[in-house]
Q: What sequence folds into this?
C-alpha cells in the first residue's frame, strides 16, 4: 500500500468524525460514498490528499476548523437580517427550510433561532397572572 493509503487506514476515524463515508476500493484506492453537505463543492481527491498530508505533519484538525469557519462566515453573510421585509411565500419557504434542516436550533454563532413560550409565560409577559 502507498503511504497515503496507510495514513488513511490509520486515521479512518478522523474522516468518519467529519461524517465522510469512505471504503476501500481496490488496491490503494478509496471510494467516497457520501460527504457532509458542507464539503459538497470541493475536489475530493485534493481534499483527501491535503487532509492526509496534514495528518502526516500532525495538523489534521486545521482543515476541519478552517472549512467550518468559512461556512459560518458564508451563513452569516447570507442570513436574513433584522428588519428585512419578506413576502408570505418567502416566509413559508424559510419555515420549510428551517424544518428540513438537521441543525435547526442555533445560528452558526450558537444563538437560538427560536424560543418556545408556554401560554403561562406569555400571560406573565402581559401581566395576566
A:
Amino acid at each position: 500500500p502507498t503511504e497515503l493509503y496507510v495514513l488513511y487506514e490509520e486515521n479512518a476515524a478522523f474522516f468518519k468524525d467529519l461524517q465522510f463515508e469512505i471504503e476501500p476500493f481496490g488496491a490503494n484506492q478509496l471510494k467516497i460514498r457520501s460527504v457532509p453537505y458542507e464539503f459538497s463543492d470541493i475536489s475530493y481527491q485534493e481534499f483527501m490528499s491535503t487532509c492526509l498530508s496534514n495528518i502526516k505533519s500532525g495538523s489534521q484538525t486545521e482543515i476541519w476548523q478552517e472549512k467550518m469557519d468559512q461556512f459560518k462566515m458564508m451563513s452569516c453573510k447570507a442570513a436574513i437580517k433584522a428588519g428585512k421585509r419578506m413576502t408570505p411565500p418567502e416566509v413559508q419557504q424559510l419555515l420549510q427550510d428551517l424544518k428540513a434542516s438537521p441543525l435547526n436550533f442555533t445560528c452558526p454563532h450558537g444563538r437560538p433561532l427560536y424560543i418556545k413560550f408556554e401560554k403561562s409565560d406569555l400571560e406573565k409577559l402581559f401581566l395576566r397572572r
Remarks:
- Residues 60-78 form the longest helix (19 residues).
- The mean pLDDT is 80.
- The beta strands are 21-24, 30-34.
